[in-house]
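Section 5: illustrative case.
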C-alpha cells in the first residue's frame, strides 16, 4: 500500500503544462451562459468512455461555443481567469498556452493585440505564463498574414504554434515565418504526428526547424525519426486523454509515451482542450499511472521534463527538480 495515494502524490508534484489551447479550455459554467440548454449538464464527450468518431465531430463541438464566446478581450479574460486558477489549484507553476489567430476575424475594430493583453492580464501571481499564437497550416493569407508578421514581434507573445487537423502539408510560408520568429527570440512549435505519419514529424523538425512538437505520436513507428528527435533534442508535448478520445491511439494502455521515454525522447504531458475532453492535468498523470502502468518515478520524470524545456532560470529549474525528487522519496 503506497504511503501517499495516487491523487495526493500527483497533486503534490510541481508541474508544467505546455500544450493547452485557451479556446479549447472554456469553463462549462461560461459555456452555459451562451447556451444554457445544450451545456446545462456536462456534455457527453466528458465521459471517460466517450470517443469522437473523427476530428470533424470534435471540430463541430468546438464550434458550438467558440464563435459565440471568443469574440472580445473581456470574454478571453473571463475564461482565462478561471482556467488559470484551476491550473494553479493543481500545483501547475508554469504554463504555455496558445490562442487562435482566427479570433482576429470576429472582434470588429478591436486590435488583435488586445486579446493577447487580456489573456496576460488574467495570469495570477505565482504562475509563470508564456503565450503562443496558434494558427492553421493554411492560415497565412490576407489580413491574417499581416497580423502574424506583427505579432511575432510583440512582447506579449512567447512563440507560435501550428494547430488543427494536420492538413494540408506544411506550406512554404511557415518555414520562413518560423525562422523569422526564432530570430526575434520566440519559441516555435508545430502540431504533427497526431493523425499524420512519422514523415510529418520529420518535416516539422527538418523543414520548420521546431524543437517542440505537439503530439508527435506517429514518430514511434519510425526509428530514423526517433533518432532525429533525439539528435535534435526535440521535446514532444503529449496529451494522452485527448489522444484516446480522438482515437489517435486505441487506448490509454497502448499510448506510446513510455516507449518514447525509453527511446530517450523527452516527453511532457498536458491537457490540450479540457472543454472538449473533460480532463484536468492531474487526470492525465493519474490515467498514465492507472491505465498505462507508469510508475511514480516515471511520472516524476515527465514532470521534470516539463521544467527542462520551460523558459525558467536554471535556479528555478533546479529547485523544482529537487522538489520532485523529494516527492518521490517522501
Ligand atoms: Zn493541441
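Designed sequence:
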Amino acid at each position: 500500500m503506497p504511503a501517499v495515494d495516487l491523487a495526493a502524490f500527483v497533486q503534490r508534484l510541481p508541474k508544467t503544462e505546455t500544450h493547452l489551447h485557451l479556446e479549447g479550455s472554456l469553463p462549462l459554467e461560461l459555456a452555459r451562459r451562451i447556451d444554457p440548454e445544450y451545456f446545462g449538464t456536462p456534455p457527453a464527450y466528458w465521459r471517460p468512455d466517450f470517443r469522437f468518431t473523427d476530428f470533424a465531430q470534435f471540430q463541430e463541438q468546438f464550434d458550438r461555443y467558440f464563435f459565440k464566446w471568443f469574440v472580445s478581450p473581456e470574454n478571453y479574460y473571463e475564461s482565462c481567469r478561471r482556467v488559470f486558477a484551476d491550473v494553479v489549484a493543481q500545483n501547475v507553476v508554469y504554463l504555455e498556452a496558445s490562442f487562435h489567430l482566427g479570433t482576429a476575424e470576429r472582434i470588429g475594430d478591436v486590435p488583435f493585440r488586445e486579446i493577447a493583453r487580456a489573456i496576460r492580464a488574467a495570469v495570477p501571481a505565482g504562475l509563470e505564463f508564456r503565450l503562443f499564437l496558434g494558427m492553421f497550416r493554411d492560415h497565412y493569407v490576407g489580413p491574417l498574414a499581416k497580423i502574424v508578421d506583427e505579432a511575432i514581434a510583440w512582447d506579449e507573445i512567447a512563440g507560435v504554434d501550428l494547430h488543427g487537423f494536420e492538413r494540408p502539408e506544411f506550406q512554404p510560408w511557415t518555414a520562413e515565418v518560423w525562422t523569422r520568429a526564432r530570430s526575434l527570440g520566440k519559441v516555435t512549435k508545430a502540431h504533427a504526428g497526431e493523425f499524420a505519419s512519422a514523415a510529418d514529424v520529420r518535416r516539422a523538425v527538418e523543414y520548420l526547424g521546431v524543437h517542440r512538437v505537439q503530439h508527435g505520436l506517429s514518430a514511434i513507428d519510425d526509428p530514423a525519426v526517433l533518432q532525429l528527435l533525439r539528435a535534435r533534442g526535440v521535446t514532444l508535448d503529449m496529451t494522452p486523454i485527448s489522444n484516446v478520445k480522438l482515437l489517435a491511439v486505441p487506448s490509454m494502455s497502448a499510448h506510446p509515451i513510455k516507449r518514447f521515454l525509453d527511446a530517450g525522447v523527452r516527453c511532457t504531458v498536458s491537457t490540450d482542450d479540457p472543454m472538449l475532453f473533460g480532463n484536468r492535468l492531474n487526470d492525465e498523470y493519474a490515467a498514465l499511472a492507472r491505465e498505462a502502468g507508469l510508475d511514480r518515478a516515471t511520472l516524476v520524470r515527465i514532470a521534470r521534463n516539463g521544467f527542462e524545456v520551460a523558459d525558467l532560470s536554471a535556479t528555478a529549474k533546479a529547485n523544482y527538480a529537487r522538489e520532485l525528487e523529494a516527492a518521490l522519496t517522501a
